[in-house]
Specification:
The chain is mainly alpha-helical and 171 residues long. It has one domain (2-167). The protein has helices at residues 2-64, 71-83, 89-98, 107-139, 145-148, 163-167. It starts with a helix and ends with a helix.
Length: 171
């Protein structure tokens, strides 16, 4: 009788426990590596989005004769700048409010210089939203992922919600 129990125990380990353990190890490696990769990719896109904002601010600041004091109000119109068409008056009115001496004929030059940055912002924010969705999908998976995933904290990012940033437009 003891021999049958030992044989059953050995067969159980060889055919059930060992393969299950190996599968769990591979799943752990896969999901933890994927979660870390998404987190690193999100951070890279966050830096690109921040540098895009900084570049747009520097172009506007230098061409419009603005100071660092105007940056706070620029933050308020930045979503509109990303969202609107080039000939929209919101940006021009804001520039004129900040600097009365601004030459409106320079407006199209500024918008041409930041057109590529606007497009880059849209591309990277769309990718960031895909990353956030995929990461959320991984960290909210059920069994066995919830047991083997080391970092279950969500990636923090507040997207700029505009029609242009969501769907894009031809510039």
């Amino acid at each position: 009788m003891i021999g049958y129990i030992i044989i059953f125990f050995v067969l159980f380990i060889v055919f059930i426990a060992l393969p299950f353990g190996i599968v769990m190890i591979f799943l752990s490696i896969h999901y933890n590596r994927r979660e870390r990769t998404l987190r690193e990719e999100a951070e890279a896109h966050r830096k690109i989005l921040e540098s895009t904002y900084d570049h747009i601010w520097k172009v506007v600041k230098s061409h419009c004769g603005l100071s660092e004091e105007n940056r706070r109000s620029f933050n308020n119109i930045y979503p509109n700048l990303i969202d609107t068409d080039i000939d929209d008056d919101i940006m021009l009115n804001w520039i004129l409010d900040q600097n009365i001496d601004f030459d409106p004929s320079e407006y199209m030059v500024i918008m041409d210089k930041i057109a590529e940055d606007r497009q880059r912002f849209v591309i990277h924010q769309r990718r960031m939203l895909v990353i956030l969705r995929e990461h959320h999908s991984i960290i909210t998976k059920g069994w066995p992922v919830k047991w083997i995933l080391k970092n279950k904290s969500p990636i923090r990012y507040e997207p700029i919600d505009t029609n242009y940033a969501r769907w894009g437009s031809s510039i």
